[in-house]
């Protein structure tokens, strides 16, 4: 293929501005036609060498007593860059020497109060590769509601964290998210909405 994207390559990366959590960089690269080009990107400064990942996103699943299907554990928190409250999956940065599973279970407990067990980990994922190399893994976590610790979950939030926890049924997640947005004026993290749309399409194709 003449213009195959696999022919492009990065030539040089240079730092631009440095912040506490983020650094901006300039990328000199060669496109598939051999032309030199420039790109700007943002980089997290917290990535650990243990996993080569920045963060973990958590798909926490539980089954409420008397319910036929699984529910998804979700959070609402104000995101300054958006200027709105965003509905998201729980997530957090990976600490040094932590595994994906350890981070997922720790962050789930801290943000939601639920104790869970990781059952699956994804490959490394990039949510906005046109802007940043920030990456994450998606960890699926089973939350056993028979565990006494999950009877009255108490989040362990850090100073400056203001998170509201709620659940929605997996069945009808798409409509549930839209209803929350319409009622409360929130918006939805793209990754969560993609999950909901995938579930909706899968149901429609059955």
UniProtKB/TrEMBL annotation:
<keyword id="KW-0378">Hydrolase</keyword>
<dbReference type="Pfam" id="PF00293">
    <property type="entry name" value="NUDIX"/>
</dbReference>
<dbReference type="GO" id="GO:0005634">
    <property type="term" value="C:nucleus"/>
</dbReference>
<dbReference type="GO" id="GO:0047631">
    <property type="term" value="F:ADP-ribose diphosphatase activity"/>
</dbReference>
<dbReference type="GO" id="GO:0019693">
    <property type="term" value="P:ribose phosphate metabolic process"/>
</dbReference>
<feature type="domain" description="Nudix hydrolase">
    <location>
        <begin position="51"/>
        <end position="192"/>
    </location>
</feature>
<dbReference type="InterPro" id="IPR000086">
    <property type="entry name" value="NUDIX_hydrolase_dom"/>
</dbReference>
<dbReference type="GO" id="GO:0006753">
    <property type="term" value="P:nucleoside phosphate metabolic process"/>
</dbReference>
<protein>
    <recommendedName>
        <fullName>Nudix hydrolase domain-containing protein</fullName>
    </recommendedName>
</protein>
<dbReference type="InterPro" id="IPR020084">
    <property type="entry name" value="NUDIX_hydrolase_CS"/>
</dbReference>
<dbReference type="InterPro" id="IPR015797">
    <property type="entry name" value="NUDIX_hydrolase-like_dom_sf"/>
</dbReference>
């Amino acid at each position: 293929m003449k213009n195959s994207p696999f022919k492009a390559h990065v030539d040089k990366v240079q730092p631009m501005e440095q912040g506490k959590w983020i650094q901006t960089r300039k990328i000199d690269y060669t496109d598939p036609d051999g032309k030199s080009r420039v790109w700007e990107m943002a980089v997290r400064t917290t990535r650990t060498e243990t996993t080569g990942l920045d963060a973990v996103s958590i798909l926490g699943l539980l089954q409420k007593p008397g319910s036929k299907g699984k529910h998804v554990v979700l959070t609402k928190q104000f995101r300054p860059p958006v200027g709105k409250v965003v509905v998201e999956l729980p997530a957090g940065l990976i600490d040094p020497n932590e595994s994906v599973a350890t981070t997922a279970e720790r962050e789930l407990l801290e943000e939601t109060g639920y104790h869970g067990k990781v059952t699956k980990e994804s490959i490394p994922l990039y949510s906005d590769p046109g802007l940043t190399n920030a990456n994450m893994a998606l960890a699926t976590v089973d939350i056993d509601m028979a565990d006494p610790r999950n009877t009255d979950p108490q989040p362990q939030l850090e100073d400056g964290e203001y998170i509201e926890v709620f659940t929605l049924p997996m069945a009808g997640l798409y409509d549930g998210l839209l209803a929350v947005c319409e009622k409360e004026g929130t918006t939805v993290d793209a990754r969560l909405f993609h999950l909901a749309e995938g579930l909706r399409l899968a149901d429609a194709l059955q």
